[in-house]
């Protein structure tokens, strides 16, 4: 199979590299010439474990290449995937489809022979049909079908998710398109991964419904954690026990400072917009968005309360800035709300993140960046854990306590055992669980 991947950002690059690993011939396209040059030198524009090795291997095998020349990549391709960005449009929360339609037009001009044009970016219901219209208007003679093939990969484990997905969703009406996309995903048929073939609109909706449901699950457990704190219950025991019910499932029940990232905030917003316009409002998800936004501010209030209501002039060590571990992504990270709120209240911030400090520098100001976790803690008045990086799990509570001048530790990811932290002399605050012998 010959595949053109339009857009070499997160989804495009990971998908392109994985398709080449399946044995297909893949050309990744991007308008950003600098990015293409760097990719040719095997320099990744994003932090994703294992991606550089996968790209290097398949580029060396001649199955994966990079170009700014969209027409050359589309010429003769069996399938062209659109994986350009779909940011939230300012003001109305709708996904901004400017880049998708611009790509569709350019692809249309370059089509030769029968081609499936597939949207891989997360796009609102109805976009596939509009892409087909754009192509037909630009090139009335084009021989093509459109398809929707949403991506469910998680940052930080994207390659594993792509190679071993829970399911693949393909939305298309064209018989030839079904055949080509089945061939593209043949290696997954062989390992018996479920492949759902459905209508274009259904495939588009599946992606939004999946992310909205997961965001709802996280938000549910966060609210249950609040209740646990009030009644002296343990949220992890609640999560584990409800999760053992197969109808609920164990994942996405870990409480925290609120969800962030490139998908949940954007997709939940687009979902409720589409739903409102279609006259089928999604009240649950509207509430989820509101509760999650409020939670980020509440987290800052919680930190201030842990310092007895006054952080003015205090130095607070912040461990982790990325929206979750194993990524340098800062988009909608809780740190973007919590850190400025603490600064506003007069605190000085000393932060460390294993991967996201370069990104953080662009978005947060007046932060003293440390070279490691212990360095961030040294001499600070107290600490806040914002991202659950594995390397933070291994920190020694006694050593942390020695480095800090004060005893306050607010763990917004429940990384540590409360007993270990109290034993080390901390006033340890965590989410939704009783802390023996401590005010939290
Ligand atoms: C998500 C979806 O999982 C993926 O299928 C989709 O394609 C893109 O969006 P991602 O944004 O990379 O992936 O992160 P994910 O691991 O799903 O976490 C989303 C957010 O929820 C993060 O802020 C994370 O910290 C939070 N979360 C997740 C929790 O707070 N608790 C949990 O139990 C799980």
TrEMBL record:
Reactions it catalyzes: UDP-alpha-D-glucose + 2 NAD(+) + H2O = UDP-alpha-D-glucuronate + 2 NADH + 3 H(+)
Keywords: NAD, Oxidoreductase
Every UDP-glucose/GDP-mannose dehydrogenase C-terminal domain range: 317-418
PROSITE patterns: PROKAR_LIPOPROTEIN (PS51257)
InterPro entries with a match to the protein in the record: 6-PGluconate_DH-like_C_sf, NAD(P)-bd_dom_sf, UDP-Glc/GDP-Man, UDP-Glc/GDP-Man_DH_C, UDP-Glc/GDP-Man_DH_C_sf, UDP-Glc/GDP-Man_DH_dimer, UDP-Glc/GDP-Man_DH_N, UDPglc_DH_bac
Superkingdom as given in the UniProt entry: Bacteria
Pathway: Nucleotide-sugar biosynthesis; UDP-alpha-D-glucuronate biosynthesis; UDP-alpha-D-glucuronate from UDP-alpha-D-glucose: step 1/1
EC number in record: 1.1.1.22
SUPFAM superfamilies per UniProt: 6-phosphogluconate dehydrogenase C-terminal domain-like, NAD(P)-binding Rossmann-fold domains, UDP-glucose/GDP-mannose dehydrogenase C-terminal domain
Alphabetized GO MF terms: UDP-glucose 6-dehydrogenase activity
Family recorded in the similarity comment: Belongs to the UDP-glucose/GDP-mannose dehydrogenase family.
Name assigned to this protein: UDP-glucose 6-dehydrogenase
